[in-house]
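GUN4-like domain-containing protein: structure tokens wanted.
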Amino acid sequence: MKNKIQVQLIALREDNNSRSNIKKQLEIIETIHNNDADQLKDLANLFQDRITNPDYTINYVDGLIYEKLLNSQNQEIIQFTSKLCPQGIVPLQSAKKMNYQDLQSLLVKHDLLAADKLTQKKLIELAGVNIQDRNWLYFTDINKIPAQDLQTIDKLWHTHSKGKFGFAVQRQIWLTAEKDWGKLWEKIGWEVDKVPCRYPDEFQWNSDGPKGHLPLFNQLRGVQVLSALFSHQAWNNC
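Answer:
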């Protein structure tokens, strides 16, 4: 007789492409224990079926499954997952041959402060700025960053945050707020009662932060740089 988790996983298998039940899917995955070999094996089999589907597209449900399997305490499951997805589930594409496996690893491990710092470093390098000269970007630097690389960074953050984080999420909130920066800061938690949060202690370096809270992006240097980022051609099809 199948247990409750197995029944739920069967339902999850059948509901692969339903957006209306994404919240339910995430809840099912999060109930699985990291040291329950049977549940993890069922989840691993489901994961394999999902990502090998010819019509598969990257999504944050599978991002959570991948994290659950890779962060489990079961070496067999970890090895299975690593072999199945040796470079993760997000294609690490780069127009400048940038290596994104280190960023992916930090996001999968939920080390968001380190991931945020690494994201800023990579953006600076992608813009062609010598990080020894300055560790920030001017708005004129933004268009030097290839669209493909911005999209890869964004997909990594989005996929490994249950859809909460990433530049595209922040941009959508900004557009919904009619490009009102004050409303954006409030909605994504960069300001509290109109007072800017102090870095790093007053930011939330976990999945409990507001939607769009991470990654940070020159938040202390005015709006020109972020405006340039939100206007980048990387988001033309968003």
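The first helix runs from residue 4 to 14. Residues 113-235 form a domain with the Arc Repressor Mutant, subunit A fold (CATH 1.10.10.1770).

Cheers.
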